[in-house]
Structures are given as structure tokens and as C-alpha cells.
Write a structure and sequence with these properties.
mainly alpha, two-stranded antiparallel ribbon, 2% strand
Length: 324
Amino acid sequence: MSAVVDLVSGMAEVLLGAWVFTNVVEWISYRFKLPAGFVGSFVAAVATALPETLVPIVAIATGRQEGVAVGAILGAPLMLSTLAMGVGGIAVALASALGYRGSPEVRCDQLRFDARHFLAAYALTLLATLVKSWPLRCAVAALLIALYAYYLKRLSGIGEPIERPSLPVELAHPALAAALSTLLLAVSVLLMVLGARSFARGVEEISLSVGLSSLVVSSLLTPVATELPEKVNSVIWYIRGRDRLALGNVTGAMVFQATFPVSIGLVFTRWDLSPRDLTYLLVPMASMLALYLRGRRGRLDWVTMTAMAPLYPLPALASAGTTL
């Protein structure tokens, strides 16, 4: 019963936090004329990716089983490129059918930009995984950090400022508006973090009650519990037709997860993946490549996005019976 309470209360907190977060981020973007690409793929993406990023860091720092750390690192990009995309596709289709937005297609300029950097990062990670050399892993880790810095530099000039958002309260005084927006942003992130923790606790209790291994929990369930609820931000933006923010919130988080957390894993764990465990790298790469190719004309249909969701459990099924 406590697990169900954690799930329900956690989701309620995340939903409230996501609603506040999306409104505040839109207002900040409009107020300071920030490019929508930068806001979606960095500000929103990194802010909502921080909770699950702490999972592998804490696991490594406390000396827990490496499977927990590596599973959490590899599970986040996997979930984002498959399940989160599927949720977005369903949201777009429903919003279009109900008249909240026009076409059931989304603008995917941001996805194509982010996908190129993600694929480059994971290609380097795959190389470091196949070549069993700690010095090479350290070199690749340094390259991943440099790649993310380069990505942020290019990202800062992408996308036009968003349209003026409709807010329940308009503040004319700049200092008061800045203070209130900062406070609301902090409160919204705190709500999402606390909600995700409660949701994660409920998922873990249920998974342990049915006897799942720590590797499966970490790679398959932890990203769902800690990151997928926070992608409600993207659902809200899809409904509002703010596709660059919605997609950037997912794909920007993927670029972050494929660089910073992976670099930590390469340096501070054995990173000894079995041949079957390589699917944790190959499935997200295949998913993003398919989305990139389908979106070459600048539009991505909801069917293609939804079709990525069934790929999510494949790595866990492929690596069943292996241990880290």
C-alpha cells in the first residue's frame, strides 16, 4: 500500500512542479530573449536531468555495486530515445485530435541538431567500450566533456525567442519579476525532484517485491522513475505547440546524459560490458538515427515517435543473465 501512495503522491508533485516549471521557463525565455533551442536543450533539459544523474554518482561514491551505476548511466539515454519519444508521440496525436494543436507532426530542427552530437558522443563511448583500455577511456571521457562544451557554444545561438507566454500574473517591475521567477523556478525543480524520489521509491518497492535484479532495476526502472515523470514538461509544451522546447527537453537531456555521466562511468568504473550489454548503446543510437533520418525534411510524425517506445526493454532482455 505504501508503494502505491508513493507512486500517486510522487506523480502529483511532479505534475504540479512541471506545470510551474514550464510556465516560468517560458516567461524567462521571453523576458531575456533567450533562443528557444538553448532553453529547451540546456536550461530545461539539464534542470530535469539532475536527479537521475545523482544516482550513478552516489552509487560510485558509496562503493555500491557497479551494475547500479552503469545501469543508471546507460538507462537514461535509452529511456529518453525510446519511451520518452513514444510518450511525446502519443501526446502530439491526442493534442491534435482534441484540437489543442494543428498538425500531428512536430518541428524537429532541434532534434536533428541534438542527434548529431548525441551520435558522436555514443560513437566515442562505443569505441571506448570495445577497446579494453583505461587510458583510452580517460581520453574519451575528456573528449566527451569537450564535446558538450562545444555543443553548448553552438546551442546558444540556435532558435528564435519564443512568443509571449500567457501568464496568470503580469509583473511590471523587473526586479520583482526576476526574484519571483527565480523563486518559482527553484520551487518547481524541488517539487519535481521530491516527486521523482517518491515515485522512484514506489517503483523500487514494487520491483523488489517481484524479485528483479539490481541491474534490471537500475537500467530499466530507475530512468522511468526518476526522469520520465519529469518529461511531463515536454507533454505540456507539445500540447501548446512549442515543439522546439518539447523536443529539446528530451534530446538535450540525451546529449547531457551521453557526455557528463558517461565520462564519470568511463573513468571511475570498470565499464566492462558484455557483448549482449552493448545493446544499451546500440538501441539508443539506432533510435536516434531513425528519428534523425525521418526528420530530414524538418517535420517528424507522431507515428515514428511512438514506434520508438517498444525498443525500450530490448537491452534488458538481451542482457538477461549477465552481470556487471
